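For reference, the entry.
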Amino acid sequence: MTFSVHGLAVSRGIAIGRAVLVASSRADVAHYFVDAAKTEEEITRVRVARNAVIEEITRVQKDLPKDAPHELAALLDVHLMLLQDELLISGVKHWITERHYNAEWALTTQYEIIARQFDDMEDEYLRERKADLEQVVERILRRMKGVPSPLQPQQVVRQAGASRKESQQGLLLDDTVDVPLVLVAHDISPADMLQFKQSLFAGFATDVGGKTSHTAIVARSMDIPAVVGARSASQLIEQDDWVIIDGDAGVLIVDPSPIILAEYGFKQRQGELERERLNRLRHTPALTIDGQRVELLANIEMPEDTLGAVAAGAVGVGLFRSEFLFMGRESKGLGKLPDEEEQYLAYRKAIEGMQGLPVTIRTVDIGSDKPLDGRGKAQDTHLNPALGLRAIRWSLADPPMFLTQLRAILRAAAHGQVNLLVPMLAHASEIRQTLVLIDHARAQLDNKGIAYGQVRLGAMIEIPAAALTLKLFLKYFDFLSIGTNDLIQYTLAIDRADETVSHLYDPCHPAVLRLIAETIAECNAQGKGVSVCGEMAGDVSMTRLLLGMGLRSFSMHPSQILAVKQQVLRADAGKLAIWAAQVLASEDPAALLQQ
């Protein structure tokens, strides 16, 4: 019987194949007590398994192919850091020595305790790092049980006899060894993902994960059809079931009828043709039908991302998230903070990687629920981290750290076009403090005789207070960048990662659209640059509306650029302006967008 399982669409495309199930290792962990004399033996079992996993990941790092997504290397670093985390190690020892739990039980107990700390974090990205901890624990448990990676070929078991599905699907797909396979698992770790391209799998689905989970990030970078957060998919789907993974809609269709199979087979072929057509647009200028030039920029996290940005046809970097240079450093044996030289070299590498195109570097957007290594647990002192000491507030609270970053950015600006972007400003006093420190950084470089370049100064509009005081911002800044993710969250008082209220997180809420439209209009009226760098910029369903509002600069993940460019090439900006005004005046903008 055909049925569907809904999850989150995180990587576009359609995969059709037989299901290979990988159950969670934590689901069948044995619970028993050990004698006091055997506690050291249990601790040794965990330590040996953990060390084996560390060796395995270290080996994978050394053997990374040149074309592997840079995200994988960073995520493997995160897993190594978690494997060596003292809280995990000491907790497991505690449960074994004090409670006499067996090794597996002690490991899963400590996982649950740490996982709850992740659940309490306000930031979506940090909260979803719980999935990485779970993946690490899964790998240790698999090693203790002697179970290999879920993507190793020997794990794929084919049934020799005919099944109840073959009578239906046999009409459309021959049941041979060449039949594609899809992986259905509780979760997949980055190390296992590396093997995906060399495996027999056409796509995957997981029970857990979110749009910013590492599994989702890597799936997008590797262009693998995927659905995550499908909850009980691994329990509902049986081994060898025919499964369709619709990465566009976030749906799994199990045991599809011949008609559904034929329909999705057609969609799959259409998707492949569409990707080929999009690739042809790579070097086509982004011009609307009525001749309006549109700037399509890339969001990047690390200097290496510029390769993908240039390949996708980006005309610059609209957002370099510099905080990724500051995070996860202890696991790499680095200092708590990157010094001026390290930052300068990273920014210079990004600038040179863009081959003369402009690069917008956002000052560190970290703090509160995203503490730097060694700074302690901010959640212990901040009741609401999303509203606490973060972004520019953090930087202004630590002038030496901020000046170090500013000097590095100014020095890098000597090698190309650089825009300096400041996040989360809301007060005139913050603006003045920031400008004073920028001038102070220039003076420090002048005193040392160190060369630096000129930068255009910009501010993020991600707090409603900022959107409502635009004239103040435009008095001091050359351009503005709208961070729609936070702007929506703060305008609607909604944490989109909180399942109890996530349905209220609405980019099309009239208040949100009005703040965005008024920001764009005011910047255009004053001849100042304005861009959108949040998720809305890469959402093709929003492209026409943003164009109609007067936006001419979009910044997004490189993988989304060609799809947005296609929408731009098909748009008449003049006619869209009239339609956009109607949408903004509507009580239900989403309904007009769907039409």
Remarks:
- Confidence is low (pLDDT under 50) at residues 153-177, 374-381.
- The first helix runs from residue 39 to 62.
- The radius of gyration is 25 Å.
